[in-house]
């Protein structure tokens, strides 16, 4: 089952079962494009590259900051720096931010979620899983 066009929200937080080919598989569904994973659910994220990660594109995460302790940002196939204002804004809200490759972010997210930790992830989709 895939999300229908125009939707882009799954109402529960779920582990990521697979990624690559420009999307993700979770909860027996597939999603094409980037993804935000929060305690309130999984959301389509309209970001295609590391340069698109801004305070504006992370607004949903910032609004949910009271419900997460750690935010993993999957920056695509490689590690990329995030703007200092993102780190500072989330730090002010008590959220630890780790910017890593998407594959690394998914692996850590799944472990923390399995441990019932207050974790969120913002994941840029990639074509090839590593």
UniProtKB/TrEMBL annotation:
Against InterPro entries, the record matches this protein to: MTH938-like_sf, NDUFAF3/AAMDC
* Protein name (record): Mth938-like domain-containing protein
Organism classification: Bacteria, Pseudomonadati, Pseudomonadota, Alphaproteobacteria, Hyphomicrobiales
């Amino acid at each position: 089952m895939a999300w229908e066009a125009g939707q882009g929200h799954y109402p529960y937080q779920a582990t990521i079962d697979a990624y690559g080919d420009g999307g993700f598989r979770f909860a027996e569904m597939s999603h094409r494009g980037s993804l935000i994973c929060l305690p309130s659910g999984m959301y389509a994220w309209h970001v295609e590259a590391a340069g698109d990660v801004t305070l504006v594109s992370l607004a949903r995460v910032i609004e949910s900051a009271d419900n997460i302790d750690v935010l993993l940002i999957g920056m695509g196939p490689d590690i990329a720096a995030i703007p200092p204002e993102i780190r500072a804004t989330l730090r002010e809200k008590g959220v630890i931010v780790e910017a890593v490759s998407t594959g690394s972010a998914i692996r850590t997210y799944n472990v923390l979620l399995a441990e019932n930790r207050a974790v969120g992830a913002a994941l840029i989709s990639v074509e090839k899983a590593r």
